[in-house]
Design brief:
The complex is a heterodimer of chains A (561) and B (80).
Chain A lengths: L2 H22 L5 H6 L6 H12 L2 H14 L4 H25 L4 H8 L3 H33 L4 H51 L4 H4 L10 H11 L12 H17 L1 H4 L8 H37 L9 H7 L4 E3 L19 E3 L3 H4 L1 H4 L4 H38 L5 H24 L5 H14 L1 H10 L5 H25 L18 H18 L6 H10 L12
Antiparallel strand pairs in A: 1-2
Chain B lengths: L1 H28 L1 H4 L3 E2 L2 E2 H31 L6
Antiparallel strand pairs in B: 1-2
Helix pairs in contact in B: 1-3
The chains are: A mainly alpha (561), B mainly alpha (80).
């Protein structure tokens, strides 16, 4: 069978699976819609969290990003995994004990203030919308490249699928489809990686293959350093970014990860506090499978790509170059007219431009793997994009129905609340779909926003809310607002207002907009402390609440107001 | 209960110290000196940045789970 048939078959089968699960796990109550009834096992929650977290960007773009940045790409690997340690140790068990449905719920109750709750809702909505638009775009791209239908139709089909199971099933439907999506996406990522590792290094484990030797006996990484140096590029294993910036970006990504509302809410779905701790461990274990494979895929990809094109005759290029030239992900321009490709660092002489997404999307073709493996990549990328989109849509609908409507109209019935939640989810799907079809030019830029904002707004007030009994509502609101305004201001200035001077010489303390969330977070902490010191302590019932969430006993199921 | 909380904080501090050392320490600050050593075909600092830190993170969470389950039983704040 050819690639297109395999792709239709595998993507089609995976969709039938997701829809089947959605019908089987329909939500009947708000508790099932918001937190899956609180009865999810830690192992299932771990897989669901992993699928929720690993987005189209992790699946399609991360390996390619590392291919072209080498050691500097480590910020993503450490940043997007290290946050789970913070989540498991500092947040998840206590938020589970607190036992409500959302992050703004916690902020509002702990800081006994609806103002604080509204600030938290705005952050949650902003972060989630930014993210979900990118996912829909990912769905559209996969459809158009593999199934050869226009991007618009790809987005519409993706919207219908997500709409179906997020709106119908709520958290319950999402959780069990995410378990299936995790299995699909990890299988799709590992199979080509194992094949390629075997071919290049003779070792079937990609994590070991990356430290292995190529056919002539030199270590792969040393060989790659040499090849890149010959072409004028920096060595693969050494860095170009400043150390301060590396530290700041890694910290911002870690803390941002721990503060993302769609990740935090997953820990409300397990029955007990100890299950929340354990499922954070499972989640990171499942994420680590992909995240320790990605650097291997990255190095194998760039090594294979250079070997199969550099100094080769343009008339004799491998098939994958022609296939992907159609999508503009790869471009050949014989500048010196010698009929051969020169891939070099100097932009004036370079004749080959490769998009980072090629490393995963075309990986199986570059390595001449069977057609069904190519089809598998499409199904995996869809699983990654859909699972993350669904998790985000749920946060959006919950924020609207519960944190906004219910807070200010506490008398509405559960049935009405559920209907509002479903309407909000439907609205969010359409909104996200619109931006998937007409992506604003700045999708890539705003990702820095999402992490920076989560780091600078949520993380400090949640941590302090658990570990300090003295921080009060004045401190929390002032801290969140300071962190937010500072971080937004810095990013907007360097990314939109004055992008020309977005260079290390102009950055404050050498920190790039990607890493500024760490500084925003530090400011938030400081302001929180200082303002709280000069304003009255929280009332006694809040102090009792804090003492209560520190102890696992008596968690019970997640409660309504 | 303050004894339980103190032991919990101690556990957190130790684990977060290791968390900091394997990622920010070995993976970024000390990466150059560590790259003088090799681990298979990996320069050691590079290995920590792209592999070792992630394995350590997973281990840290499971150590935390075991330790806290033990503390919960010791202070009888365990759930059924």
């Amino acid at each position: 069978m050819d690639i297109l048939t395999w792709t239709y078959l595998l993507v089609g089968l995976s969709f039938i699976l997701y829809i089947g699960i959605a019908i089987w796990t329909r939500a009947g109550s708000t508790q099932e819609f918001y937190v899956a009834g609180g009865g999810v096992s830690p192992l299932a929650n771990g897989m669901a969290t992993a699928a929720d977290w690993m987005s189209a960007a992790s699946f399609i773009s991360m390996a390619g990003l590392i291919s072209f940045s080498g050691y500097d790409g480590s910020v993503y690997l450490m940043g997007w995994t290290g946050g789970y340690v913070l989540l498991a140790l500092l947040l998840a068990p206590y938020l589970r004990k607190f036992g409500k449905f959302t992050v703004p719920d916690f902020v509002g109750d702990r800081y006994y203030s609806n103002k604080a709750r509204v600030v938290a809702v705005i952050c949650a909505l902003f972060i989630s919308f930014t993210y979900v638009a990118g996912q829909m775009r990912g769905v559209g791209i996969v459809f158009s490249r593999y199934l050869e239908i226009p991007i618009e139709w790809g987005v519409v089909i993706g919207m219908c699928i997500v709409f179906f199971y997020a709106v119908l099933g709520g958290m319950k439907g999402i959780t069990y489809t995410q378990v299936a999506q995790f299995c699909v996406l990890i299988f799709a990522y590992m199979v080509p990686a194992i094949f390629i590792s075997m071919q290049l290094t003779g070792n079937p484990v990609p994590q070991l293959g990356l430290g292995g030797e190529v056919a002539d006996g030199t270590p792969l990484l040393a060989k790659l350093d040499g090849v890149l140096a010959d072409l004028g590029f920096a060595e693969y294993t050494s860095g170009r970014k400043g150390m301060g910036d590396m530290l700041a970006i890694t910290l911002a990504l870690m803390v941002g990860t721990a503060g993302l509302p769609h990740v935090i809410v997953r820990f409300f779905t397990v029955p007990r506090v100890k299950d929340a701790r354990l499922s954070a461990g499972y989640a990171l274990f499942f994420i680590a499978i992909l995240y320790t494979t990605a650097p291997a895929v990255a190095a194998f990809g760039i090594y294979n790509a250079i070997n199969s094109t550099s100094e080769k005759n343009i008339s004799e290029l491998p098939n994958w170059v022609q296939n992907w030239q159609k999508t503009n992900l790869i471009a050949v321009d014989d500048k010196n007219g010698d009929g051969k490709i020169q891939y070099v660092a100097d932009p004036a002489r370079n004749e080959l431009t490769i998009d980072k997404d090629i490393m995963v999307l075309a990986g199986p073709e570059i390595a001449n793997l069977p057609n069904w493996v190519v089809g598998l990549i499409a199904a995996g990328a869809m699983a990654a994009a859909l699972s993350t989109a669904a998790g985000l849509l749920l946060v959006i609908s919950t924020s609207v129905s519960r944190d906004l409507v219910k807070t200010f109209n506490p008398e509405i019935s559960e049935k009405t609340e559920l209907r509002i939640a479903r309407f909000a989810a439907a609205g969010a799907v359409i909104f996200a779909g619109y931006f998937g079809v007409n992506p604003p030019g700045f999708v890539a830029e705003v990702v820095a926003f999402a992490f920076g904002l989560a780091a600078a707004s949520f993380f400090p007030v949640i941590i302090l809310g658990i570990f300090s009994t003295r921080i009060n509502k004045e401190g929390a609101i002032a801290g969140m607002v300071t962190g937010l305004v500072f971080t937004i201001g810095y990013i907007v200035y360097f990314k939109f207002v004055n992008p020309v001077i977005n260079t290390p010489d102009h950055w404050w303390f050498g920190v790039s907009p990607e890493g500024i969330g760490s500084v925003g977070m530090a400011l938030n902490f400081v302001v929180c402390f200082v303002v709280s010191k000069f304003t009255p302590a929280p009332p006694q019932d809040v102090q009792d609440l804090i003492q209560n969430i520190r102890i696992p006993k008596g968690a019970g199921a997640a409660q309504d107001h | 209960m303050s004894a339980y909380w103190k032991k919990n904080l101690r556990t957190l501090l130790i684990l977060l110290f290791v968390w900091f050392i394997v990622s920010f320490g070995f993976g970024i600050i000390l990466v150059e000196p560590l790259n003088q050593f090799h681990f298979g075909g990996y320069p050691l600092g590079f290995w920590f940045a792209q592999q070792g830190s992630i394995y350590s993170f997973v281990l840290l969470i499971f150590i935390y789970v075991i330790r806290m389950n033990f503390l919960d039983r010791e202070f009888d704040v365990n759930e059924d």
